[in-house]
Amino acid sequence: MNLRDLKYLVALADHRHFGKAADASFVSQPTLSTQIRKLEDELGVALVERAPRKVMLTPVGREVVERARRIVAEVEQLGEVARRNRDPEAGSVRLGLFPTLGPYLLPHVVPRIRKRFPQLELLLVEEKSDVLLQRLREGTLDAALLALPLHDDQLHAEFLFEEPFLLAVPESHPLASHGPLALDDLSAQTLLLLEDGHCLRDQALDVCRNAGAGENGGFRATSLETLRQMVAANVGVTLLPSLAVKPPVARSDAIRLLPFRDPQPSRRIAMAWRRSSAMSAFLLQLAAEFKRLPRELLAVDVPDHAPKKARASKGKRT
Hints:
The protein is of the alpha/beta class. It is built from ten helices and eleven strands. The strands form three sheets. Strands 3, 4, 5, 6, 9, 10 and 11 form a seven-stranded mixed beta sheet that branches. A two-stranded antiparallel ribbon has the order 1-2. The radius of gyration is 24 Å and the shape is globular.
C-alpha cells in the first residue's frame, strides 16, 4: 500500500468515474483502474462497485476512503510544515466561503491580503456551509469562513466580526417609511427566505421565531440576489446581511432597507481550521486581515425615506 494508490482511491470517490478520476490524477484510466485493483487485492476486500456507467463505493470502501483522506491530508501537512518554515507568508491557502458572504466580503478584503502577503496564493472555494465543513474535516480546505456557532471540537474558530441584518421591503410597503425596527414589528410579516442548505436561511428562521414572523412557504430562493429581485418586484420582504447592501453592491430605488434597534439581529462570522493544522500560526495572521474590516461596512445606516420631491425642494430653498 502506498500514498499514490490512496490518492487514486480518493479521486475515484470524488469523481465516481474512472476516466474523470484518472484525468484528475494525471494518469491513464487503465493505470488508475489497475492500481485500485491492486489495493483491493492487498486489503482483501472490494472497495468499488463497478457498473457500466456508474462507480459506487462499497460500505467498507466508504470507510477506507474516509481514512485515506485523513492520511493524504496529514502527509500534505508535512510538506506544508516545511514550506511554512522556509517562508511563513508564501505558499497556497485553500479558503472556503459560503455564498451569502463571499461575494460581498471579498472585494473589501482581498486587495489588502494581496498587499500584505504578496507571495500568497489564495485559492477561494464557494460552497454551502455543510459542504465547507465536510471539506475542512477531510483536509481538502485549509480554512473556511463560517457562521457561529460551530459544534466541532476538532476545529478552531477564530471570531472575525458580527454582521447585522436589515429588513428589505418594497418601496410601497407599509413599513417602507418606518424608522428603526423592533423585532416585534416583524410579527405580522411573512418573509421570503433561501432554500434549504444556506446558513442564512437558518439564521433568518431564528429571527422569525424570535419575532413571531412567518415564512412564505410557496417560494424559496436559490441566491441572495434572487431574494433581492423578488423584494424589488413587490413579492415580499426579506432579511439581508449588512455587507450585501454596501458598495460595490448597487442599491435599488424599488427597495427600502430598514435597520433594527438594539439588540440587532445579526450573524457572527469566524474563520475555522483544524486544530491539528500546520498552518495555524499563519492562519491567525490571515484572520487578522479579515478582522480589520472598516467599521462603516458593518454599520447599519438609518435611511432617508423622505419623498424625492420634498428633498429637491428643500435643496432649492438652501
